[in-house]
Amino acid sequence: MVKIIIIDDEDNIREALRDILEYEGYEVDEARDGEEGLRKIKNDNYYVALCDLAMPKLGGLDLLLKAGEAGRSTQFIMITAYGNIENAVEATKRGAFDFVSKPPDLNRLLISVRNAIEKYKLVSETSELKRRIYKIYEMVGDSDAIRRVKESVDRVAPTEARVLVTGPNGSGKELVAKQIHGKSSRAHMPLVEVNCAAIPGELIESELFGHEKGAFTSAIKQRIGKFEQANTGTIFLDEIGDMSLSAQAKVLRALQENKITRVGGEKEVKVNVRVIAATNKDLRKEIQEGNFREDLFHRLSVIVIHVPPLTERREDIPLLANKFLCDIADEYNSSVKEILPEAMEYLKSLSWTGNVRELRNVVERLVILCGDKINLDDVKTYAGQV
What we know:
Blueprint: E1 3-7, H1 11-23, E2 27-31, H2 34-43, E3 48-52, H3 60-69, E4 75-80, H4 85-93, E5 98-101, H5 106-136, H6 144-156, E6 163-166, H7 173-182, E7 191-195, H8 204-209, H9 226-229, E8 234-238, H10 245-257, E9 259-261, E10 268-270, E11 274-279, H11 283-288, H12 294-300, E12 303-306, H13 317-332, E13 338-339, H14 341-349, H15 355-369, E14 373-374, H16 376-382
Parallel strand pairs: 1-2, 1-3, 3-4, 4-5, 6-11, 6-12, 7-8, 8-11, 13-14
Antiparallel strand pairs: 9-10
Helix pairs in contact: 2-3, 13-15, 14-16
């Protein structure tokens, strides 16, 4: 049942609002001042708080802020006397859902309550989805190598610094980029991913910067590029070592001037984008061979995070394998299977040329083809590395 709390120091106001809301079928709680209201909000899940602005001990504005700091999703409808309209407007700027004047108009109040309930549900669903996504992209491991990666992510994420993520294929470079974005101040804005190795060289500039109608034969309409799509957010340039030199020059200009020009266009478009790049190549070697611009390398590598291969953190394999067992069980809506100790030791001894991605594929194969207890013979048969 939907729970609503009324926070007001006037007994008659609380009584009148309680009668109205209980008649509508809501579960109603009360608090006589801001401190009591804050205590109850911290200890229970209220969809909506009808909160007076002027109260003893803790005013409505301060209560609103403290509830937000406590991480509560409760939607506040501020109750105000006529002379406090300016304060009520200030409350909405600080996150209150709405405000109503005393004495409240019944129809307007109920409409506001219903809308606030819908907002609470939407916020809660969004938070749950973000929690699940964050869990999916969680970096798993207790090895020294992965701890260093996690520490680097935690330090760099809140900044605006550009990051270059290096490491072999399948080691988790994309995961690091998503962690950096998810822990940054841009987390609520887009993370736009571009696989530079998957886009033909003649199309990479159009993909990154967009094009104008008629710019080339198949350009039948204007197209917005990835940099504009990522505006105010983050762009992740995966496998940047495979980008053409001409595209590198345009990326360098975008980083220097925070401007891009669409293919076939003349107008400069301002962009505010944080760039995270990744590569499995040795870019310094690529620079010596003339395949990568040194000035772009230095623009991208303000912070370098190296993701080690799985063979350099074998102690993390049991943690990763057990996480994959749980994830796959969730996907298949089945019980979680177990890899027996001897089988797990054998997994730790394999070469893992495909790194974490290969391990995930092997665990999924074992889940599909083996019984509830995955033994050594199962792993030797199905791991593909006998």
